[in-house]
Each structure stands twice: as C-alpha cells, then as structure tokens.
Design goal:
By secondary structure, this protein is of the alpha/beta class. The protein has three domains: 122 residues, no CATH class; 236 residues, 3-Layer(aba) Sandwich (Aspartate Aminotransferase, domain 2); 113 residues, Aspartate Aminotransferase, domain 1 (Alpha-Beta Complex). It contains 15 helices and 19 strands.
Length: 511
C-alpha cells in the first residue's frame, strides 16, 4: 500500500514514491532560456507570480492524489457513463479497445484512477512511456511551465531552445563509452527508427538490404512493419524493403547459439556480398518476449558487421532508461561497436543518435514537428532525473526493482506449480534453461499456463478486473509483461501487485 502522507511542496519528490529531492520545479529557471536576463520570456519564467501559481497548482494536485493509496473497484454510479465512453471510443476507432481503459486524468505514481472511479496498479504505463507514473508533481510542474511557451509544437525549421537542451543532454549520455555524437529529435520511436534506417542506407549506398532478428518489432509505419517480424503487422502491405532475419540468442543452446548465429550471418553476407546497409539489433527484445543475450553473442555478430562495413544499429526504443545503464549498450559494454542508436518511449520526445561517420548529408532528415514544448521540457527533465537519481548500476533502483519482482515471482511459482506448466520449445524439446520469470531492470516477464496465448490473455483480463494493468509480449511462448514506472515504483509495491495477480491467475485456472 502507498503511504498517505503528503511531501513538502518545495521538493520535486513525487510522493509518496520517489526518494531523491531536487530544487522546486516552479522555482527553477527554465532550461529553455539560455540567457536568463535578456528576454521577455526569461522574465516571465522568473516571475514570482508564475512560480507561486505553479506551486499552488501542484500542492492542490498533491492534496487530491494523496487519497489514491491502493487498488479499488469501480464506483457503481459511474459505470453507465464509463460504458458510454468505451462505446464512443469503439465508434470513433472502428473497433473496441483492447482493454476497457479510460483514465480519469489523475493518479499517484504507480496507481492510476480510471473514469469509472476504480484505481489500478499500472504495470504497463503506455508500454513503458511513463517512467514517473501518473501525476508526478515534478513532471506536472515542468509541464505547466512548458505550457506557457509561445507555441504548442516545435519543428525542424523553427524551434525554441527546448529541443537543443534535450538533444545535448541525450548526446552527452550516449557518448559515454561510444562514438555517438549527434542526434535527430523526432516525435515517435517509429520515426526515430525510420530516420536511423535512412542514415544507414545513405551511408552505405547502394547497399539495399537490412538484417534484423527474428521476433523483432520496429514500429507501425509501412517500412518498419516490413522489418518487424510480425506477419499480422503487414497484412495487405506491399513489400518495400529487403530484410533477412537472424535467429536471436537461445539460452537452451548456450554457446552453440553464438556459433550458429555467426555461421548464419556469414552465410547471408556470402549470399549477398556488399548488399547489407545495416544490422538492427534490439539488445533486449521487447515485443519479442524480453529475450536477452550475453555480451559475447552481440560482440561476435558486431565484429562480423565491422569486417564487412555493415552499420550496427541499436534499437533501444523500449530498453532506453529501463536497464542497469541509461543505454543497454552501455551495460553490455558495446558502445565501441554502435554506429546508430534509437530511443523513445520514456524520453517523451524520441531520437536517432549517430556517430560522426554516420552524420547524414543535409536534407535527409527533417519533418514539420520535432515535438511539443511540453514533451521536450518534460523529456529533458526525465533525462536529468534518470541521470542523477540513482537508477543505474548493479545496486541502482532499476536493479533493485528487478530483484524484488523476481523474489515475488519465484514465490508465486513455488506456491502454484500447477499454473506454471512446461513451456514448449520450437524444437519440441522441454525448456530447462529458460525460467518462468525474468527480464532486466524495469523490464519484467512472467510465463504462466505454458505460455499459451489464450490463457495469458484471459489472465491479463482478470488482472485488469482485479486491479493490475499489464500486457503480453512474445510470439510463442507468450508472457505477462510488466513495465512498471521505475521512477516511482518501490520494491514493496509488488506485494499488492502479486496478491492481485495471484487472485487473477486463480480465477483463470478455475476456468
């Protein structure tokens, strides 16, 4: 359960969940004003009236959110209105929502209130978008200040200093242990990936082919749907890019998996010599099932790429910020190999980051929108808090959350072995090296009911009804996926999350 105390309004702690304090957001000079004394905008942002107004709004937010202390059921009087919202969504979209989720507009860290009055533990957060959960006072204060900017959207032709600050902060962190020096900021992870692909194709022209891992996910544009390994994601779409797929690391085969992957890669290069522009690698497969590989697996493949002039592109749209380093390539000490990286989700604004060698020619990358002033300023604040908040390293908050998750998951598996039946391997063998739970940092998975999609989907629906919002990942086996708000989640919050999960699994097992 969450504490009900309200923290000092003159800190940026996001009570009751964050543990580190920073200067009051309303009192900070906006980072979007490089000359605090020379513009009317700077004078506006430094106004005591503005700071006092923001502080008052944030304090009112704290007062209301403090009542959200745990999961609770819907309010009967709101149910009819809630059903109406869901019906309107279905009519506008043309199909029903995957989850009957309509937020009310307020939450308290990992807890979110829905428009039916229910409160749920949000363990998916828009698929990893909200690192600091719901209604974080510091993020709200940053957004309020950003909302006073002269325009809503900033673009590649006309922009404020917001995008410069965001890009500088991002590049400074990416450059640690790598050759990455520049970035192109854009408004979605998919567009960041589109930009990265263009960079690689231009640099290695006329090579037209792309290498990707089996079970990868790249985004929903026409081209990214072609690279992503999901048949359902490209039904009816014309083929417009040449992609060859590599098997991802298989823990059941260990070092043999590395040898086989290198052999497979060399076979493809021999078949299409000089034809590969890049190898895009999810260092932890997100949609694919939170699959991981050891450093030596990636090193072996990356060295072959370097030998043949193939760009190494690290897709970190989902891993970014969630593992034991801000970039997972840093955790694996792969920075020396990476030519291009892409990030998104929790950063709010998204980006393709690249080395000097891969700096594209003028005209290749552009677009009307970079992102909104709110996204850019909140994104910069997210980067600052990620960098300075003790999230990284083997003893950081991300690692401690993974440890807490595994402890509760192990207890659940031990208590109910009947729910955790053997998970089939594509070869037909029984898996012995793949546990029923896993992940890294703030990326967590649990594999009940043999990884059967129908059963996992039922489990997710029951979890939602009981008070936990989660999602699935994997393509067989399927897993229950948690992407909790690592910025505000505490290890003991998993107690109630797993109590609810246990009740939900029991309902599904009972049929």
């Amino acid at each position: 359960m969450l504490a009900t105390s309200v923290a000092d309004p003159h800190t940026t702690e996001s009570p009751p969940m964050t543990t580190h304090a920073t200067p009051t957001p309303a009192a900070r000079t906006s980072s979007s004003n490089p000359d605090p004394g020379g513009t009317k905008a700077a004078a506006l942002m430094a106004s005591k009236a503005v700071s006092a107004s923001i502080d008052a709004l944030v304090e009112e937010l704290r007062r209301h959110q403090s009542a959200l202390t745990g999961a609770r059921p819907a309010t009967a009087a709101l149910q009819e209105t809630y059903e109406s919202w869901l019906a309107r969504h279905a009519e506008a979209r043309g199909k029903a929502a995957l989850y009957p989720y309509v937020g009310s507009g307020i939450g308290n860290g990992a807890l979110v209130e829905l428009a039916d009055g229910s409160v749920k533990w949000d363990m998916i957060n828009g698929i990893g978008v909200h690192m600091f959960g719901h209604s974080d006072p510091d993020m709200v204060a940053t957004a309020l200040r950003a909302a006073m900017s002269d325009t809503v959207m900033e673009g590649n032709l006309q922009f404020n200093a917001d995008s410069i600050v965001f890009a500088e902060t991002l590049v400074a962190e990416a450059a640690r242990g790598s050759r990455l020096r520049h970035c192109f900021v854009t408004n979605s992870g998919c567009m960041a990936n589109e930009s990265a692909l263009k960079i690689c194709l231009q640099k290695n022209h006329p090579a037209p082919r792309v290498i990707a891992f089996a079970d990868c996910f790249m985004g929903r544009s026409t081209t990214m749907a072609q690279i992503g390994d999901s048949a359902a994601g490209r039904v009816g779409l014309p083929l417009n890019v040449l992609v060859d797929y590599m098997p991802f690391y298989d823990p059941e085969h260990g070092t043999r998996s590395i040898d086989y992957a290198v052999w497979h890669l060399r076979q493809m290069i021999a078949r299409y010599p000089g034809q590969y522009a890049c190898f895009v690698m999810e260092l932890v497969q997100g949609e694919g099932g939170f699959n991981q590989a050891p450093r030596e697996y990636f090193v072996a493949l990356m060295e072959v790429c370097k030998e043949h002039g193939i760009a190494v592109w690290a897709d970190e749209v989902q891993t970014f910020g969630r593992t034991e380093s801000m970039f997972h390539f840093q955790q694996l000490d792969l920075g020396a190999y990476v030519d291009v990286a892409t990030i998104g989700k929790m950063s709010q604004a998204c980006a393709a980051i690249y080395s000097e060698e891969y700096n594209p020619k003028p005209g290749l990358l552009s677009g009307t929108f970079i992102g909104g002033a709110v996204e850019l300023q909140v994104g910069a604040r997210v980067l600052e808090r990620m960098r300075d908040g003790g999230y990284y390293g083997p003893d950081g908050r991300n690692a401690r959350l993974q440890e807490a998750f595994r402890a509760r998951a192990a207890k659940l598996v031990e208590s109910h072995p009947e729910w955790f039946t053997p998970v089939p391997h594509p070869s037909g063998l029984r898996r012995v090296n793949t546990p029923y739970f896993g992940g890294v940092g703030g990326m967590m998975r649990l594999t009940p009911f043999g990884g059967d999609k129908g059963m996992v989907t039922k489990a997710l629906a029951a979890m939602f009804e009981e008070g936990v919002v989660a999602f699935y990942c994997g393509h067989g086996p399927f897993h229950v996926r948690f992407l909790p708000p690592v910025g505000v989640m505490e290890p003991d919050h998993f107690d109630e999350v797993f109590e609810i999960t246990e009740r939900a699994f029991a309902r599904v097992a009972a049929g």
